[in-house]
């Protein structure tokens, strides 16, 4: 971030207008702006500091939306230099009041979903969404493991563990989905369902889950979880699958 806010820039004059003659001899105004491309809706939503769509937007005193972490860091930097707080848009003095703006985040999500915002801005936003979803899934997975094994301050509670594995699966965690499959084929905290459990295990094994590959190989090797013995499919998944031991017994 620049040490000093950008210099104030005055608004540009409106596009020049010309008289254009019609076939009937009358004149009408022709605005050169009509030749310009339609304004990108992302322009008014981009954070002036990060130059990206804000993931945690806040409205500042200058009326613009900023990424919360970025604008707070700017305030801290200015204080450290004993420099005044100025708008990074107008360069005018402004207060430090920040108002959470979840409606802006919802608007951005809707615009991206409907392809009204595309390109680099949309890609960067979607990446943040995927990372947050993955982090949520991993956190839920840790809670589930705590309940399942009675560790990390959690009481042993298999039904509750299964519910948290389900939440992790819903958040997009491949590991969470594999654990749901394991619970279903083993009856861990839920009624056994070989069909549904094997479906989840098959999906996650293809997605790279070593646990799922291990369980599938074990099922075909010994004819477990409703599967017939199949010597060809017992080596399903990665070559390392047979060296893994599932958490649940």
TrEMBL record:
Region (Disordered): 1-42
InterPro entries in the cross-refs: Sel1-like (IPR006597), TPR-like_helical_dom_sf (IPR011990), Ubox_domain (IPR003613), WD-SAM-U-box (IPR052085), Znf_RING/FYVE/PHD (IPR013083)
Biological processes, Gene Ontology terms: protein ubiquitination
Pfam families: Sel1
Lineage top rank: taxon: Eukaryota
Record-annotated U-box domain positions: 44-111
One term of GO molecular function: ubiquitin-protein transferase activity
Biased composition (Basic and acidic residues): 20-42
Protein name in UniProt: U-box domain-containing protein
Species whose genome carries this gene: Seminavis robusta
Taxonomic lineage of the native organism: Eukaryota, Sar, Stramenopiles, Ochrophyta, Bacillariophyta
């Amino acid at each position: 971030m620049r040490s000093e806010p950008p210099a104030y820039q005055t608004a540009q004059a409106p596009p020049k207008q010309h008289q254009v003659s019609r076939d009937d001899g009358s004149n009408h105004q022709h605005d050169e702006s009509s030749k310009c491309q339609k304004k990108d809706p992302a322009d008014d939503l981009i954070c002036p500091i990060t130059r990206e769509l804000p993931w945690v937007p806040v409205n500042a005193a200058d009326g613009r939306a900023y990424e919360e972490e970025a604008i707070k860091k700017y305030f801290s930097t200015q204080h450290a230099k004993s420099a005044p707080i100025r708008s990074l848009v107008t360069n005018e003095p402004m207060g430090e009041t920040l108002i959470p703006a979840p409606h802006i985040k919802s608007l951005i999500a809707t615009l991206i979903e409907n392809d009204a915002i595309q390109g680099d801005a949309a890609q960067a936003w979607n990446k943040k969404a995927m990372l947050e979803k993955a982090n949520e899934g991993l956190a839920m997975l840790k809670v589930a493991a705590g309940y399942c094994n009675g560790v990390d301050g959690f009481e042993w509670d298999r039904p509750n563990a299964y519910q948290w594995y389900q939440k992790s699966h819903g958040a997009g965690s491949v590991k969470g989905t594999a654990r749901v499959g394991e619970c279903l084929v083993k009856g861990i905290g839920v009624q056994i369902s070989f069909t549904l459990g094997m479906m989840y295990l098959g999906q996650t094994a293809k997605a790279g889950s070593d646990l799922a590959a291990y369980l599938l190989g074990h099922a075909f090797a010994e004819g477990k979880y409703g599967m017939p013995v199949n010597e060809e499919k017992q080596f399903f998944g990665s070559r390392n699958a047979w060296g893994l031991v599932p958490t649940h017994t």
